[in-house]
Amino acid sequence: MRLTPDEWIFWQHGFVKLNATIAFTWALMAVLTIGAALVTRRLATGHERSRWQNLLEIVVTGIVAQIGDVGLKEPRRYLGFLGTLFLFVAASALATVLPGFEPPTASLSTTAALALCVLVAVPLFGISGKGLTAYLKSYVEPTPIMLPFNLISEVSRTLALAVRLFGNMMSGAMIIAILLSIAPFVFPIAMTMLGLLTGMVQAYIFTILAAVYIAAAASNPGSSRSGPRPKAAA
Amino acid sequence: MLIDWFTVGAQVLNFIILVWLMKRFLYWPVLDAIATRELKIAAALADAATTKAEAHRQQDAFRQKNLAFDEQRTALLREARDSAKAEGERLRLEAREAADRASARRANTLLADVQHLHAEIARHTQQQVFDISRRVLGDLAGVGLEQRMCEVFIQRLQDIEGAALATLGAALRAVCAAEPAGLRSAFALAAPQQAAIRAALDALVGQPVPLKFDTTPGLVGGIELSAQGQKLAWSIPDYLGALSSDLEARLAVKVPA
Predict the structure, then answer these.
(1) Residue B121: inside a domain, yes or no?
(2) Minimal Cα–Cα distance from B16 to chain A, Å?
(3) Which residues in chain A are contacts of B19 at CB distance < 8 A?
(4) What total number of domains does chain B contain?
């Protein structure tokens, strides 16, 4: 039994390798991109729209609304990063229903990569939102004594993001694999459905936490719309 | 080792590429379509608001026009009614004046006809009386009318008495040869007739009275003596005067002027 799809290697040449994580990621990217391109190829601007256009509009406007609810003043500015995080994680969870598919998010490398992206995006959005000095000053507030703790917080929450998503996705896939060997009939189906729910929740949690981190970094300290403090998630 | 750093790097790169792809093929087109639709809806709402405002404006304008039209119609009707009333009054006055003028003309014409008829009757009557008297006197006594007139005139002179005699005598005595007393007659008096009259006057006054005899056809039939503003006359028109007055009274009753 593979603990992570990284171990499923299709091709390797020295340090460079093509494993299942990368391959399935490409597959998801292809599906998402081709699907979006097919639907958005003929977008209607009138009152009559296709079902797929309605679905995409619901997804996009829903993500924008969620970002706005977190406290970010210009949700569309963060839509590319946060929306793609959600869609990628959610698509990975949904694709677990396909036989033989192993979600890339069940790989700690993928979740670590996403967490690293959040780790880099938070200061970038924070600096662009309120300036370099103000952003750096936020690390020594309320007192300079908090600087090491803030730095530790940055690293720990990034690690928490990666491990939380990896643990949930990997455990779900693992449980389904184990149950298939023990009770291969009805029970794995129920667990698969539970896994779908867990995956969607994880996608939501990952995206919302990233949004909260960005909001906390990009908002002014005295602003009433400063982002909420991140809370621990399952 | 659960983390493969090559895979981590590859996934970071994959994620960045996916972000760009999603922006390119999903977010921008969908958001643009939504924005375009919102613009269309906003434009439609604005157009509807404009149309509604225009409809309200036209409704108000139409209502104002209706009110103005009603007021104008009422004013025109009132003006026409007043004008018709004034025109009727004017025509009625004109008709009354025309009727009055026609009535006056008719009365004048009728009066002129009556006067003409009176004159004609008087003239005819005089002529008839004169002719009848002439024929009656000629047939009965063989005396001419002129002779009888002289006799009657002389008889009148002799019948004068009292204050009238004194006044006439004073007037006749005041006349002289330069301004003789006038004696006018409708016909030329014969010499014996002139002598008889002269003798009667001389006897009345007591002295010779210069006389001047004139013939005046307008007297119709009669003799008239005038001296110093005093007049003594006898003529057929004196008799006809009473007849004319009687006829006028009768005509006045039958034909109002």
Answers:
(1) no
(2) 9
(3) 80-81, 84
(4) 2
